[in-house]
Structures are given as C-alpha cells and as structure tokens.
UniProtKB/TrEMBL annotation:
Domain Sigma-54 factor interaction, chain residue ranges per copy: 207-437
Name by which UniProt lists this protein: HTH-type transcriptional regulatory protein TyrR
Source species of the chain: Propionispora hippei DSM 15287
Keyword list, A-Z: Activator, Aromatic hydrocarbons catabolism, ATP-binding, DNA-binding, Nucleotide-binding, Transcription, Transcription regulation
Domain of life: Bacteria
Length: 519
C-alpha cells in the first residue's frame, strides 16, 4: 500500500499529537512513522482513498495551533538515509559498520568490490560467518574498544587483499554500540604509494627465481633498465620475456609514463599498421572522424613493448625502422611527421639471425633493435627455479579454486624437475593449475601431474567401428585443435601452424566450442 508523508508546522501545545492521532484513528488510517520536532510534526501514514486524503488535510488543518498541512516526498529519517547512502556510495574506500554483536548494519558498494562479497552476502550477516576470526580485527575492537590502523587482511577463500582501519562507535556514556571499518584495496594502496613516492608498482621482486642463471639475467636487466636504449629480449615461449619488459619499464626513468605492450603476431598486418601509427581523418572509408592516434603516440614519453617482433611483415619492419631512426611517426594518409619519444623493448622466440639469412627479417632493423640483447634461459636450463615457481602457482590456484591443497609431494616435485618444459613457465603454470583442479586432498600427488604431451588424441581404432566418416573427421579435427591450443596463443599462430586463415581457425574453434586461452 502506498504511503503519504505529511509535514505539519504548528505552535507547540500539549495534546496536539493526540488530536492528530484521533482524527486518523476515526478514519482507520494507520500511522507508519512519526517524527516530532519543535514546531513541526512529520507523519507517514497509509494512504487509503482520495476522499480520506481530502478529509485529513481539512480536519488536521482545523486543529487549534496547527499552521498548515503539507505533503512531502520523504520523511526526515528517509532523507537522511538517502543522503547517507549517497555519501557512502561516493567514496572509493570500503565502509562496513557493525552492531555490538558483530552483525553488519551498513556497507557501501566499494566494500562489496574490495571484499569480493555480494550485497546479499554482506547485508545482515555476521562478521564471523564471512571472515575467518583470525583476520577480523573488528571483532577484537568490539571487545576492547581500541581502534586500529592499516591492518593487512588477506582472505584466501574470497581472494581479497586490503588494508583496514577500525574505530568503535560509542554512546554518550562511553558504551560500545558498534564499530566501523574502512577498507582500502591493496592495489589502490600500491597506486597511492606509487603516486606519492614514484616507487614502482611492479618490480624485479615480482619475478621469482633462485637459479644462478636467472640471477645473472636479472642483474643485467636492472642495469639495462636505468638506460634508454632499445632492448631485444630473447627466449623460448613462456620464459617470462613480457615480465622482464614490464620490470625494465617500471624500474626505468619512464616508469610514470605508459607501458604499451603489443603482440605483433596477434593482429593482422593491415590492422597492425593502424594500431602502431594511427591514421588521419578520412584516411579510408569507415575511418573514425578526427583520425586516430597510434600506439607510438599513446606511448609518448613511455615504453612500447613489441612482443613477437619476428612476426612483423617486411613492409612494417621498414616502417618501424624509420620510426626508430628518425624518432618520428606519420599517421596513415598523412604527410605530417609527429615526433615521438618512446623507448622500444622488443621480444622474440624466433631465430632472427636465421630469418635474416632467409630474407624474412631486415638486417638493418635487427641491428637497430638488438642494441642490448637479453637472453632469458629456458626452464629446463634452470631447474632450480621449479620448486619455487611450482609453490607460487600452487598457492595461486589453490586460492582461486578454493582448494585446501598446500603441498607438493616429493615424487611429484621430482616428476616436475625431470620434465623438459617446452612451454616453459607458462606450461608449468598450466600443469599446476590442472593438478590443483584434480587434487582432492591437501597434497598434490604424482597422479595429478599431467603434462601437455600426455593428452594424446583419440586413437582412431576406438572411433572407427561405430562412427560415420564425418564423425571420425570431426573427432580428429577437435583433437588436433585441442593439441594446437596447448601450444599456440593467438589465432594467427594457430592459423600458421594449421595452414588455415584466421577466419577458418575461428570458425573451427566455434564449431567445437573451443577458444584461445587468454592469460
Ligand atoms: N620468474 C617468474 N616468476 C613468476 N611468474 C613468471 C616468471 N616467469 C614467467 N612467469 C609467468 O609465466 C607466464 C609467461 O610469462 P610471459 O608472458 O612473460 O612469457 P613470454 O616469454 O613473454 O611468452 P611468449 O613468448 O609466449 O609471449 C606469465 O603468466 C608470467 O607471469
């Protein structure tokens, strides 16, 4: 039933509320809420009919000392609640208020985002049902009344990580009637530290290793980072080339500017050119009005990371060489040259020297980008790193998949140490993710470790007897695609490996309900 809110200005007198109540009672009208302030009464009542409404306006106005009766949209308490909601909704920090028993009474949308809990989970729930007691300083606060500042909370089941400060809410006699916690997401804290101190948000500390080989690479990379020269990062697929590029940028003098990564193999040539250099207004049919900035312009002042540079077509290689030599770009369809100040980091797992011999890679570009070569060793050449990286991925996927697995058995670690890792750290991550999916207990065992090459395609003998040729071909096609997907990350690479066009690959993936694994 709809309610009607009234504001009744008056000259205070004893018995006025009783008179109003009598009029409403006579008409069987229910009072939903009432607020009495000096010289004003606010009423929220059930609205019955237009006739009732006319009647109560007339009769209440006629009460002695009543000045007027006005209809209003919201009661004062509703207005305050709306204002509070707007204030809570406008802050980026999470806010959670609880009553003395630890039941959540208020929270804002930022708290949902930071705790990774939904409004339904938070509303009227108790702290203990949502957070392990060991990570809820608010619970202690309710007992001691002592506030706290910037406690770090990592809640593994919900994958949330934040800093929280808390204060008690006391009544006038000093009794604790609740508490309020402020939550700051850890990534916002990092950004803040970065803004204030200029300290890098991603550093070499995020690249894990124990091997001597990697120590040498990391030391060299840290030195390189201080300079401004072009770096060519070499290494097999999945060895961490992009990770190094990011660490070099974030430790360099350009750290405050943009790091723009581009995988040259992921985009067809024609698009790649517009991505890199942009285009002028009206350069071609369907081009955006006002033209478009390319990535070199975007990255101005910062770093551009050209991953899989060996996949660039020879015509784009020539254009890239011009930018590196002249420090200027020209948008497609434009004659104007725009100066850009961009550090180029490039990476490849291809043998560029062999490609030069075959005429597939320009020698002049090679010398231009290979100013400082950085070789990331394959995982099989630094097996000492396997236990540490395995633990990292085990923790990551145990948390992500809500599994209680905490350790890797001796023999499975042995199995990991003996494998040749053609897909390097990316493959190790896949294998651990797969194992965590399979494990039921707390220890990852030998049987949970399945390498990519262990996935053997359906043997033909098992399908031949009962299937039509179309079905057999379908099964084989699906197996081949699954196998190829474990080795290639982009449509372009897949297409190349299977001698198919982009669209043909895409169509086949769709047909079998498969997709490229994004990382
Ligand atoms: N030393 C490391 N510590 C932690 N994670 C790592 C390390 N090296 C690589 N990784 C992880 O392995 C994955 C592959 O790394 P990355 O993408 O940097 O490799 P890449 O050599 O650039 O691969 P590709 O040649 O296929 O582009 C990423 O998820 C990355 O975070």
């Amino acid at each position: 039933m709809k309610s009607l809110c009234l504001k009744i200005p008056n000259v205070d007198r004893i018995g006025l509320i009783k008179d109003i109540s009598c009029i409403l009672a006579e008409r069987q009208i229910n009072i939903l809420s009432m607020e009495v302030k000096p010289n004003t009464v606010f009423l929220e009542i059930n609205l019955l009919t237009e006739d009732d409404k006319f009647y109560i306006f007339q009769t209440i106005r006629a009460i002695s000392q009543v000045i007027d009766v006005q209809e209003i949209d919201l009661m004062p308490y509703q207005e305050k609640a709306e204002q509070l909601k707007a204030v809570l909704g406008s802050v980026s920090d999470g806010i959670i208020a609880v009553d003395p028993q630890g039941n959540i009474t208020q929270h804002n949308p930022a708290a949902e985002k930071i705790t990774h809990l939904t409004a339904d989970q938070l509303v009227k729930s108790s702290l203990d049902s949502l957070f392990p007691p060991s990570i809820v300083p608010l619970r202690t606060l309710l007992q001691t009344g002592t506030g706290y500042d910037n406690c770090e909370v990592i809640n593994i089941p919900t994958q949330s990580h934040y800093l929280t400060s808390g204060r008690p809410i006391m009544d006038s006699s000093g009794r604790i009637i609740g508490a309020v916690a402020i939550l700051k997401d850890i990534s916002d804290v990092r950004d803040l530290v970065y803004t204030v101190t200029g300290q890098s948000s991603f550093s070499f500390g995020d690249i894990l290793y124990t091997s001597k080989a990697m120590q040498r690479v990391a030391t060299l990379a840290k030195t390189i980072a201080q300079g401004d020269s072009t770096v060519l990062i070499r290494g097999e697929t999945g060895t961490g080339k992009e990770l190094f590029a990011k660490a070099i940028h974030d430790t360099s003098a350009r750290a405050k500017e943009l790091f723009v990564p581009l995988n040259c193999a992921a985009i067809p040539d024609t698009l790649l050119e517009t991505e890199l250099f942009g285009y002028k207004d009206g350069a071609f049919t369907g081009s955006a009005k006002g033209g478009k900035k390319g990535l070199f312009e975007f990255a101005d002042g910062g770093t551009i990371f050209l991953d899989e540079i060996g996949e660039l077509s020879t015509s784009l290689q020539a254009k890239l060489l011009r930018v590196l030599q002249e420090g200027k770009i020209r948008r497609i369809g434009d004659t104007l040259e725009i100066p850009v100040n961009v550090r180029v980091l490039a990476a490849t797992n291809r043998n560029l020297e062999e490609m030069i011999q075959q005429g597939k890679f320009r020698e002049d570009l090679y010398y231009r980008i290979n100013v400082i070569p950085l070789f990331i060793p394959p995982l099989k050449a630094r097996r000492d790193d396997i236990p540490l990286l395995s633990q990292l991925f085990l923790r990551r996927y145990a948390a992500r998949l809500h599994k209680p697995v905490t350790a890797i058995s001796e023999s499975s670690l042995q199995k990991l140490m003996e494998y040749h890792w053609p897909g390097n750290i990316r493959e190790l991550e896949n294998v651990i993710e797969r194992a965590v999916n399979l494990v039921a207990g707390s220890i990852l065992l030998n049987e949970h470790i399945i390498f990519d090459h262990d996935y053997s395609p359906t043997p033909l003998e098992t399908v031949l007897p009962e299937c039509a040729l179309d079905e057999i071909l379908d099964k084989v096609e699906r197996d081949v695609l699954i196998k190829a997907l474990t080795q290639h990350r982009t449509l372009r690479q897949l297409g190349k490996a299977l001698s198919l066009s982009h669209t043909a690959v895409l169509k086949k993936l769709r047909k079998h309900g498969l997709s490229i694994v994004k990382r």
